[in-house]
């Protein structure tokens, strides 16, 4: 995720990095990011479980979640999307594709209703 962090910072985004699911949830609650990039292969809890926790949170459920994963089968994508991820990006990651997704979701949240995505 260091490479993603560098890519996003070079594009002008402010980033926070978590090393596990629990830390990701804590940081999301504290900082309320515009977009969450979620590695599905986390050490303490799966990214799928983190996505479900985000969607079940009264405070976080409207934040767009982009799954970043090496799990690239259609079945994996279905599980990841059912957990609540808005987008799915398989590794190796295309930098232009990822930046396009981040820009779309970050801008949507910024111009959409305050506090999150519209229609959720």
Q: What features would you describe in this structure?
A:
This protein is mostly helical and 120 residues long. 47% of the residues lie in helices and 11% in strands. The chain is built from 5 helices and 3 strands. It has helices spanning 2-10, 21-31, 47-56, 74-82, 95-111, and strands at 36-39, 65-69, 87-90. Strands 1-2-3 form a 3-stranded parallel beta sheet, sandwiched between helices. Strand 2, helix 4 (74-82) and strand 3 (87-90) form a beta-alpha-beta unit. Helix 2 packs parallel to helix 3. It is globular and about 30 Å long. Mean pLDDT is 88; it is low at 111-120.
Topology summary:
Layout: H1 2-10, H2 21-31, E1 36-39, H3 47-56, E2 65-69, H4 74-82, E3 87-90, H5 95-111
Parallel strand pairs: 1-2, 2-3
Helix pairs in contact: 2-3
State the major sheet. Answer: 3 strands, parallel
Count the DSSP helices.
Answer: 5
- Order of strands side by side in the largest beta sheet? 1-2-3
State the end-to-end CA separation: 28 Å
Unreliable residue runs: 111-120
User: What is the typical, i.e. mean, pLDDT?
Assistant: 88
Q: How many β-strand runs?
A: 3
Radius of gyration: 13 Å
Class per helix and strand makeup: mainly alpha
Instruction: Specify the helix fraction band.
Output: 40-55%
* Strand content range: 5-15%
Task: Output the helix-strand order.
Answer: HHEHEHEH
- The dominant shape is globular
């Amino acid at each position: 995720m260091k490479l993603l962090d560098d890519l996003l910072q070079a594009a002008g985004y402010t980033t926070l990095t978590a090393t596990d699911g629990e830390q990701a949830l804590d940081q999301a609650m504290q900082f309320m990011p515009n977009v969450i990039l979620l590695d599905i292969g986390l050490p303490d809890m799966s990214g799928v479980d983190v996505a479900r926790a985000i969607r079940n949170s009264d405070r976080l459920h409207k934040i767009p979640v982009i799954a970043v994963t090496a799990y690239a089968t259609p079945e994996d994508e279905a599980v990841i999307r059912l957990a609540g991820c808005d987008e799915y990006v398989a590794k190796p990651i295309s930098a232009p594709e990822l930046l396009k997704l981040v820009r779309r979701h970050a801008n949507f949240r910024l111009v959409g209703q305050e506090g999150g995505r519209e229609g959720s």
